[in-house]
Specification:
By secondary structure, the chain is mainly alpha-helical. The chain has a single domain, classed as Winged helix-like DNA-binding domain superfamily/Winged helix DNA-binding domain (Arc Repressor Mutant, subunit A), CATH 1.10.10.10. Helices cover 41% and strands 5% of the residues. Helix 1 packs across helix 3. The radius of gyration is 15 Å and the shape is globular. The termini are far apart.
């Protein structure tokens, strides 16, 4: 489902990374959240591709869509 998101315990402690690089999804999402444009991100991280940024955002949205169903209170 997320071809560009990788997990490797030897890279960044197993956090979600972009294509096995030492660039985490969290870092990319944080750059976007702080107002950087795709063009600015690509200029700062030339190993990234536009599709990497899109997939990082899609992955973050997927994680944020998780539903929580609390257990009913005991009586």
């Amino acid at each position: 489902m997320f071809d560009r998101i990788t997990f490797d315990p030897h890279i960044m402690g197993g956090r979600a990374c972009i294509r096995g690089m030492r660039i985490t999804v969290a870092h990319v999402v944080n750059l976007v959240a702080n107002g950087m444009t795709v063009r600015e991100i690509l200029a700062e991280h030339p190993d990234l591709e536009e599709a990497d940024i899109r997939e990082a955002l899609h992955y973050a949205a997927f994680l944020a869509s998780e539903e929580r169903h609390p257990l009913p209170a005991s009586t």
